[in-house]
Amino acid sequence: MFTSASSLSAVDTVTIFSLLSALSLLITAYLLSAGLLPASTPVKLRILYIWHLFDCLIHFLFEGSFLYHCFFTYTSTTTTTSSPDYPHPASLSCSRVYFLNDRHRLYGSRYGTSPTARLWQEYAKADRRWGTADLTIVSLELLTVFAAGPLAAYVCELLRKGEARRGGGSGKFWFWATVLATGELYGGFMTFAPEWLSGSTNLDTSSAMYKWVYLFFFNMLWVWFPTWVLYEAYGAISFAFARVDGDAARAEMKKRL
């Protein structure tokens, strides 16, 4: 871990813009839930819809922009040895690793000037890997944007169509919700495990804003909610199997009578 500014100096216009951007996606998810779900939708299913839609928007808009900067935002250089991009944290055992095998370019949001680049530059104050094209992060985000994002949208569509309330039809919803939640938890672990195993050299926890808001709160959302989804899925699946076993037992008794 490295040291940085005080908690108060960590808050500026870009900080406020970044937080409001995330809040706007949550508000959007809530408003869409009010317009697309029937008024009779149970609170639990409405919360599930809002969470998965928020999840989908974060993956597509925020993390999609991160990938864009990793592949298309760069600065040219004649040397890479002095940059924090090289060697990549994911490849400490190899001294000649270059993103896209291009030693003359440094990729990542830190080299951009757009609003989305500024957003990721802000988050990179807490975890500087997100300002560069870190191999582990980029690899995970490719799966997140192109697999988890569409899957979250599909889960939302199943909720909108009422699949989670249709007896046997709810199995489809809970299966895909379980797949997505498991992937989210795995992705979170793989994001931070390399840091934990290497002394968290890329993380800045000297500011309360960076430690408790950026690193803890925003990342723990993708622990709390997926864990809750798995808990609910376990209950739904257990109930379904118990009902099937009960029906089978009653059918067997009728045969014996």
List keywords for this structure.
257 residues, mainly alpha, two-stranded antiparallel ribbon, 64% helix
Write the layout of secondary structure elements.
Elements (H helix, E strand, L loop, with lengths): L12 H24 L6 H30 L1 E3 L28 E3 L7 H9 L11 H26 L9 H27 L11 H49 L1
Antiparallel strand pairs: 1-2
Describe this structure in words.
- The protein is mainly α.
- The protein has 6 helices and 2 strands; from the N terminus they run ααββαααα.
- It has helices at residues 13-36, 43-72, 115-123, 135-160, 170-196, 208-256, and strands spanning 74-76, 105-107.
- It has a two-stranded antiparallel ribbon.
- Helix 1 packs across helix 2 and helix 2 (43-72) packs antiparallel against helix 4.
- The model is unreliable at 89-93 (pLDDT under 50).
Question: What's the short version?
Answer:
The chain is built from six helices and two strands; from the N terminus they run H-H-E-E-H-H-H-H. It is mostly helical and 257 residues long. The longest helix has 49 residues, at 208-256.
Q: Give helix and strand order, one letter per element, not per position.
A: HHEEHHHH
Work out the strand percent. under 5%
The helix content is 55-70%
Report low-confidence residues grouped into runs of 5 or more: 89-93
Strand order of the largest sheet: 1-2
